[in-house]
Amino acid sequence: MLDSIRSPRDIREFSVQQLEDLAAEIRIFLIDSISTTGGHIGANLGVIELTLALHKVFDADEDDILFDVGHQGYTHKLLTGRKNLFPSLNTYEGMSRFITPRESSYDILDASHAGTAISIGTGLALARQNSKLPGMVVSVVGDGSLVEGMSFEGLNFAAERPLPFVLVINDNGMSIPPNVGGISNLFSGDDWAAKSRGFFEGLGFRYLPVLDGHDLTGLTKVFARARKLVSTGPVVVHAKTEKGRGLDYAKDHPYKFHFSMPFDKETGAGASAIPPGANYTAIVGETLKQVMEDDSGCFALTPATPYASGLDAVASLFPDNIIDVGMAEQHAMGMAAGLAMAGKTVFACFQSTFLQRAMDQVFHDICFLDLPVTIISARSGFSGFDSPTHHALYDLAYLQALPNLQVFYAGTSRDLEAMIRHRAESGKSPMVILHPYEVVWGQETKHLPAKTTPLDMPEVVADGSDGVILTVGNRLPTAVQLRAELAQRYSADFGIVNIRWINPVPEEFLRDQVARTARILTLEEGRARGGFGSSVAQFLVQDNLRADLHISAIKQDFVPAGEKITLSELTGIDAKSILADLKGKWFD
Question: What gap in Å lies between CA 70 and CA 120, rounded to an integer?
C-alpha cells in the first residue's frame, strides 16, 4: 500500500480497515528503516494512527497542517511521497530529521525547536480569516511542547476570537524524558479528560478528548467533529498516544527511544542517543557528581535534555539537586537566577542551540543582576544531522555581547573538568562554559602541554617564530593539522594557542603575541560576523596595534545539517581551505 501513496489525497477514501493495514505497514517500515539509519523513532511510532486519521479527515491541499516538533512527522513524510528519501536520513543533503518546506509543499512549518506551532498557527488562521479563505489551520503539538512559554502565550490569544484553528495534542506523557510539572499533572490520572476539559474550556476552546490515540475509528470520528465545530471557533483535540509503540523494548528505555543511532531492531541493542566514544557530556556528568557529593547546595537544571547535558547518568543519585524543568528554557534560567540569589551553587545545563531561547533571561535576570550562575552549553559549533537551526554557530557572537558574562570555551576534556570545579568552588559572576558535540579528541594527551596552564590564561600548545594560530577549542585539531601543513609547504613555523577565553578577550596576552609576530590567524567554528576573530580585530584597532590578521570563520548565514568534516570543507574552515586562502596573501 505504501508504495502507491504519493499524496494525502490517496488515503482520503480509505476505509478504517485499510487505514489499519497501512498503519501496520508503516510501523514495520519505520522500524526497519530507522534502525538502519538512526533517527527519531519513539515519537514517530506513537503518531502513526493519529497522522493517518488527520490526513483522512483534513484536506492537506487546502488546510495548513503544522507539526510541533517536526520530528514527529515521519508518517506525514510517507503520506506525502517521500518513502524513497528515508535511506538518506542522517546523510549530507539527505532527508531531514524534521519537517521542512524544502522537501515538500505539504510541510508548512520548518519546526525543529518546540513550542512555536500554536502561535504561528494562530497567525496563519487569522490571515485566513482576514482574507476569507476556505479551510483551516491544524497545529499538531506534543504535550511536552505545551510547557513552553510561547505555547501558553499562543493558547491565550487563540481563544480570543473565533479563529479557524484546531489544536491537536499528541499526549504521550513525554517530552524527551517523561514530562514534569503542572501540565503533566493535568494530563494524568483517571480524571485527565475532566481536568483538561475544565482547563481548555475555561480558556475558551471546545475540547474533544480521545482516550486511545491508536484507535483509528475513534480518531477519525473526533477529527470529523472538530472539523465541523471549528467553523465557529478554535477546537482542541487531545489524544492519548504511546511513545515507541510497536517496539517492546522501548517500554524499558528512559526516553522510549526518543532518538537513537542505528540499533538492532530485534533486541534494541546498540541504541544510543549520542555518538559512541568518550564524550564531553560524560565529563560534565561525572564532574557535577563529584561536586554534589561535597556540596548539597549545588543544583543542576536542564530543560528536558538530560542525556544531551550529561545529567542522565547521575540524576538518580541526586534527584533533589538535578532538576529537569521540562521544555521550558526561559523558566530554567529564571529559576537558576532565584537559586543563585539564595546563595546556591547553580549550573544550568543546556544545548547551545536551545540557549538562544532563554536570551532575555540570561541578559535581564542573570547578567544584569550579576549572579554567579554557570551555564554549561553543549553542542557548540556544528551539531550533526539535526536541522540547520541546531548548529550553535552563533553563540560566540551573541554571548560575548552581554555585559558581565564571562565566556569560556572548553575544547579539551581537562579544561572542561577544571573549569566546572573552579566554578563550583569560587564562581562570582555569570559564566558560560561552551563545549563541542563530538567525542573528545583522541590526541589531546599527545598535543597538549604536559603542565597545565592556569585557567585564567590562554594555553600555549606550541611555540612558533613566523606566526600564531589562535584557536577556539573545537578547532584545535584543525590548528594542529594546519601548523604541520604550513611547516611542510612553506617552512613556516607557526605557534598554536588554545585561546579558551572568548569574553573577556585576553588583552595582555594578545599584546604579547603581537609583539612576538606580525601574523595572527584566528580559527573558530562559528559565524564570522561578531565572532571571536571579530573581537580580536576590534581589540587590535582599539589598541592601535599593527598585525597581519587572518580570520577563519563561517561566512554563510545558515549551514545545512551534516558531519563536522563535511561542513568544515563546505564553509571553508578546514585546513585545506585555509591554506588556499593564505596562498597569495601570506605565501607565494
Answer: 14
Nearest CA-CA partner of 571 in 303, 442, 405, 388: 388
- The SS3 call for residue 164 is coil
Report helix angle 575-582 to 564-571, nearest 10.
Answer: 20
Backbone angles phi, psi at 397, to 5 degrees: -75, -50
* CA distance linking residue 130 with residue 69, whole number of Å: 27
User: Strands 548-554, 519-527: parallel, antiparallel or unpaired by DSSP?
Assistant: parallel
Beta carbons of 239 and 213 less than 8 angstroms apart: yes
| Calpha distance 333→310 (Å, rounded) | 18
Residue 138, sorted as left (phi over 0), alpha (psi -120 to 50) or beta, turns out to be beta
Q: For domain 2-252, give the CATH superfamily.
A: Thiamin diphosphate (ThDP)-binding fold, Pyr/PP domains (3.40.50.970)
Sheet order of strands, 64-68 included: 64-68, 137-142, 165-171, 235-240, 206-210
CATH T-level fold of 454-582: Rossmann fold (3.40.50)
Cell readout for 568 is 568544515
**CATH code of the region 280-434:** 3.40.50.970
Peptide bond into 407 cis (omega under 30): no
Q: What CA–CA distance (Å, rounded) separates 464 from 517?
A: 9
Spell out the SS3 assignment of 400-466: CCCCCCEEEECCCHHHHHHHHHHHHHHCCCCEEEECCCCECCCCHHHHCCCCCCCCCCCEEEECCCC
Give yes or no on whether 2-252 and 454-582 have one common fold: yes
Measured CA to CA, the distance from residue 77 to residue 60 in angstroms comes to 12
> Nearest to residue 492, comparing CAs of 529, 518, 526, 528?
518
- List all residues 6 or more positions away from 15 whose beta carbon is below 8 Å from its beta carbon: none
Cβ neighbours, 10 Å, residue 503: 20
Query: Strand runs (DSSP E) across 58-116, as ranges?
Result: 64-68
584 DSSP 8-state letter? T
Q: Hey, where are the domains in the chain? A: 2-252, 280-434, 454-582
Residue type, 207: Y
Question: Could you tell me which residues come within 8 angstroms of residue 312 by beta carbon, excluding any fewer than 6 positions away?
Answer: 177, 254, 285, 306
pLDDT mean values, one per 10 residues, the chain (588 residues): 95 97 97 93 94 98 93 95 96 94 93 90 97 97 92 95 96 84 94 98 98 98 98 97 89 80 86 79 96 97 90 92 95 98 98 95 98 97 92 96 97 96 97 93 93 96 97 97 97 98 97 93 97 97 95 96 96 98 94
Rounded (10°) CA dihedral 509, 511, 513, 517: 180
Enter the pTM of the model: 0.94
